[in-house]
């Protein structure tokens, strides 16, 4: 009897061992949104859902303030301490991939069918990252302004032309009803300058770098089209049509709502505050300066570090996070454009007939990626300085020539950033 009891106890203990001894493999994840409670809460919920959905992997999340995030990743890469899953700003991704911080994302491309182009991060023919949202820009104004000043409401099919847009700004300026007819957000220096203003240069026919081989900015950043852009850009400030780089940040944030500006060139993340303030806000497409209307595309995306020993687990989490319901949750929480139409249809603000639905169409039709090159991290800083200098009165041609020299020198110093084999 005692022997039988001993054998049964032994069998029970042996049977229980796999259940009590098994532990999910830990996956570390870094995220840039520590300062945004709503965004962080949604991501934590996705992490919790993933961890509860299976027994193989456990994602452990660590969030950083956005201002210090990129520096933290760079330092960790140099020290060999990167996490498994990293958050990356779309235009920065090619530099991190080229620098060896990231590895290609092992995900079936069919899983990304229907995603906005700006939400998919590709470099060197491979997908490295994917976003849970995108962002879009619009000319924001009020229908009552359009009616009062007899201004045509543009459409995606028939945007304002360059001449028409200029005439509108002059008419609004001459009315005397506004401090400035147009707010460009010049107080928001940094990446905003490239995201928001490079599309104007592209619509003129210029660019930040020659995208045929990414080996030079010559001819595209200082050619005839770029000079025409620079002269128009400078004239906006000379004629008092927009506040310059010395703009008070408070005016940039509140000027449109306070009636100081007639038109606000801004992102969809600012739209809800305007809708709360007015019942006649309209979100209009970018003007066409000759080569088609364009707006910036690509926002924060998820990818896998090069040092991760568990890329299959990291990819499983990223694929799990791409569910339309989660994309809609982010849209509802932080107001950004859902990455798929299905998610937009589920969201409160982007479904058909909703006040922000127009932004999905703008992103899909006018979204233009910043140069997809590791050299972008230098090119964007050069561009930001150049257009600030031009806004402050610097000679257009000389400034653009100087910017080209800086960019080309950097490309040469880095042996073409991998574009030339």
Put the structure in a nutshell.
The protein has helices at 2-21, 37-53, 66-79, 93-98, 143-148, 162-175, 191-204, 224-238, 249-254, 271-277, 311-321, 324-334, 341-346, 357-366, 376-391, 396-413, and strands at 25-31, 57-63, 85-89, 102-103, 120-123, 126-130, 133-134, 137-142, 180-183, 261-267, 281-284, 295-297, 300-305, 337-338, 367-369. The protein has 421 residues and is an alpha+beta fold.
Describe this structure in words.
The chain has 421 residues and is α+β, with helices and mostly antiparallel strands. The chain contains 16 helices and 15 strands. It has helices at 2-21, 37-53, 66-79, 93-98, 143-148, 162-175, 191-204, 224-238, 249-254, 271-277, 311-321, 324-334, 341-346, 357-366, 376-391, 396-413, and strands spanning 25-31, 57-63, 85-89, 102-103, 120-123, 126-130, 133-134, 137-142, 180-183, 261-267, 281-284, 295-297, 300-305, 337-338, 367-369. Helix 15 (376-391) runs antiparallel to helix 16 (396-413). The longest helix has 20 residues, at 2-21. The termini are far apart. One of its GO terms (molecular function) is maltose binding. Keywords: Periplasm, Signal, Transport. This is Putative ABC transporter substrate-binding protein YesO. Belongs to the bacterial solute-binding protein 1 family.
Please supply descriptive tags for the structure shown above.
single chain; 421 residues; alpha+beta; D-Maltodextrin-Binding Protein, domain 2; 2 domains; 5-stranded antiparallel sheet; 16 helices; 15 strands; globular; disordered N terminus
